[in-house]
Fold this protein.
Amino acid sequence: MKTPSRAELDKLSFDELIVLASELAEEDEEIKKVRRYFIDEFCQRVPAKAVAPGDLAEGEFMGASLDGRPILLAKVQGEIVALSNKCPHRGFPLHHNGKLDGYTITCAYHGGQFDIRTGACLRHPTETYPCERFQAHTAADGTIVCETFKEKA
Ligand code: FES
């Protein structure tokens, strides 16, 4: 796909954004120019739909938009865990072609790795940042809601 201008990017379908996401990983110089606004656009367009714990099988993960926040939801050992879906390195959506191995999520863009229970950075391309984590719980209507994580006293 030819590197789109900002105006062209606004007109791309979500499926076209997914194609562009794959091409971003190739680090083409032209692609780098659109990276920041592509990432914002991609996160904003992840469908805001309710997610129930049963929507995820064991070891599965997905990108979600909950209360306008890009969230990565995963089910490991029967528990739903939630992190920001924006990789702390360059903001790439972690769910897009990411890999989950046990409690480690690997970002498809530069291979950054994070512990999905704590957000701790386990491997990083250039800098170490933890990934923001959220407390996920099931609301009365059976859907997953996330809150900013509050450390236990
Ligand atoms: S954007 Fe995730 S490792 Fe670079």
